[in-house]
Amino acid sequence: MKNTADITVLGAGSYGTALAISLASNGHRTLLWGHDPEHIENLKRDRANEAFLPGITLPDLLIPEADLATALAASNNILVVVPSHVFGMVLSQAKPLLREDSRIVWATKGLEPETGRLLQEVAGDVLGDKYPLAVLSGPTFAKELAAGMPTAISVAGTHAAFTQDLVELLHSPKRLRVYANDDFIGLQLGGAVKNVIAISAGMSDGIGFGANARTALITRGLVELSRLGEAMGAKTSTFMGMAGLGDLVLTCTDNQSRNRRFGLALGRGQGVEEAQKEIGQVVEGYRNTKEVYALAKRLGVEMPITEQVYRVLYEGGTPREAAVTLLARDIKSETQDSE
Ligand SMILES: NC(=O)C1=CN([C@@H]2O[C@H](COP(=O)(O)OP(=O)(O)OC[C@H]3O[C@@H](n4cnc5c(N)ncnc54)[C@H](OP(=O)(O)O)[C@@H]3O)[C@@H](O)[C@H]2O)C=CC1
Ligand SMILES: O=C(CO)COP(=O)(O)O
Q1: What Gene Ontology molecular function terms does this protein carry (predicted)?
Q2: Model pTM?
Q3: Residue 243 CB–ligand 2 contact under 6 Å
């Protein structure tokens, strides 16, 4: 049938398109909705998303769609892949058009700007509690995923049956390994906090520090994430998986990460605005830093790296001052939880 699909993806940027390519390559009819009709026309014409993933052909089962009502009527499985600052808005737009049997999953990594709420709270607030919810999180650069290179990811949600269906839709024995997880909060937190730590690793490399400093930031970043997770009710073991250590290592070490590149630019002396402009795609960590920092303060969780990234982004501190402050902190035991 022309207007039915196994899954609909909302958000036709780099990651929404990459996930849609992966799903369609698995043999699933996949609608890809984007808010800009001209961009969707280009996708249809070129059978590629040249603006975000140049040179990668869209599989036949991927159908670009500019009309939100058509996209949401086509499937009960809705995968949201828009930046966190428009997540609530897109859900509000979708709400009156959703099918009764809709199930909502997102791959957005971040917290709600201004409130610092987890996206599960935003979704619950906008949609109520009648739809199953889930999240995808883990080390997955869009370009590699779209090119069919091997990737692994985790999924967790409110309903085990939905989580399992998502594993089956996404899993590909050739290129994508999908792990079910039962820590909905942990997967969301991992995706938000790694953005901040990737900026710190970028700043360190941008200054000219080496592998030792970068590795220390990843390791202590993991400690910060675990502390915040504990305070929020997540499982510490989650952070040893794809959505914690996995995504931290990926985005702190590889220049495909926009958060890391943003940090690199700052470390080399560029200004915040100029660095963001140059990247030209969403840098989730810019807003996330503010929200993670506020959340940590509210919960009384010690997150010194996050605090220093915050000082650079919002209080005029320099990356060098941030590094000096971190290094000069009081001597403590590695396993000590707070000072
Ligand atoms: N890229 C990656 O490798 C990965 C990204 N993610 C996460 O996925 C999310 C999306 O990121 P990504 O795709 O990379 O970002 P991009 O910057 O590549 O694309 C964002 C897309 O969202 C669209 N958009 C912006 N505002 C709206 C809106 N109001 N309604 C509908 N669409 C809108 C943009 O359209 P326009 O261009 O017209 O503004 C653009 O198509 C982020 O939370 C990111 O952290 C997670 C894992 C990997
Ligand atoms: O989340 C990502 C990979 O897992 C993408 O990271 P960036 O948003 O830093 O590019």
Answers
A1: glycerol-3-phosphate dehydrogenase (NAD+) activity; glycerol-3-phosphate dehydrogenase (NADP+) activity; NAD binding
A2: 0.97
A3: no
